[in-house]
Amino acid sequence: MFRVSKKMLFAIEAVLDIAYHAGSGPVQSREITRRQGIPRRYLEQALQHLVREEVLVGIRGPRGGYRLARERRRISVGDIVRVVRLMDGGDDAMEETAGSELGRAVVRPIWMDLQDQLLEGLDAVTIDTLCTRANEVGIVSEGRENLDFTI
Questions:
Q1: Could you tell me if residue 57 is inside a domain?
Q2: In the chain, how many domains are there?
Q3: Number of other CB atoms surrounding residue 31 within 10 Å
Q4: Which secondary structure element, helix H or strand E, spans residue 68, and what is its range?
Q5: CB 68 within 8 A of CB 51
Q6: 115-145 burial, b if ≥16 CB within 10 A, otherwise e?
Q7: Could you list the residue range(s) of the whole structural domain that residue 32 is in?
Q8: Which of 6, 40, 56, 65 could form a disulfide with 28 if both were Cys (CB 3.0 to 4.6 A apart)?
Q9: What is the pLDDT of residues 107-140, one digit of tens each?
Q10: What is the pTM (predicted TM-score) of this model?
């Protein structure tokens, strides 16, 4: 069953934060926690899963942090949602074999179709789209603020 969890929202916000606030260096998790108020226990777990699933790249060391693994127009909200769903594992009532014939043959297929439509919609929303929206509503990018183009 598709449900929006805190982890899912935090993961989307974290990837958006990395894309929107990235400057010349990687974005550190403590910066994301400061800006977004995401508890570190959720954040670190989500970031590691996003690295494993190649949405992000983790950079080690004192100046380390996270970067997007692909261009922000090539990462969709659907990609992030799928990572969190894998991360959560959990029980999926749609996969159970128990239940009535009406439930298995009629209700569950409709629900599965709706979930597929929702994921298709989320696949159409890219991180680039969200960054554009953030810029349009006037959210200042700390990464762009800190870039120095003087020679």
A1: yes
A2: 1
A3: 17
A4: strand 65-68
A5: no
A6: eeeebeebeeebbeebbeebeeeeeebbbee
A7: 6-91+126-146
A8: 65
A9: 989 989 999 999 999 999 999 999 999 999 999 9
A10: 0.85
